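Lab meeting, item 3. Inverse folding demo.
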């Protein structure tokens, strides 16, 4: 159950390559009526963490990437970033996503 919470709901997991949490995948999956989730894990390089909070039109994500590591954020389905995300360096990151509403 714990693995599901931090890997799926919160969205914190190591990338397949390179090993040892040198690349961290952040893939939050807000679902149901949950307004927020957070998770942290001790890696060989330090603490990696994610916290997201959701409202109807916004998803605020706070990431911490340990020194010597990098991260990638994959926005959840239905959410878009106003700026390209790319590879994130070590340190704290605050990212704001907006709800994607297809134009009719």
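The presenter then showed the designed sequence:
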């Amino acid at each position: 159950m714990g693995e599901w919470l931090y890997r799926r709901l919160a969205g914190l997991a190591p990338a397949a390559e390179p090993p040892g949490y040198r690349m961290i995948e952040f893939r939050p999956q807000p679902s149901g009526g949950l307004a927020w989730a957070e998770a942290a894990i001790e890696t060989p390089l330090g603490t990696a963490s994610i916290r997201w909070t959701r409202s109807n039109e916004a998803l605020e994500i706070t990431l911490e990437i340990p020194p010597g590591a990098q991260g990638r954020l994959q926005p959840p389905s239905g959410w878009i970033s106003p700026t390209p995300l790319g590879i994130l360096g070590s340190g704290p990151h605050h990212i704001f996503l907006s709800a994607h509403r297809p134009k009719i």
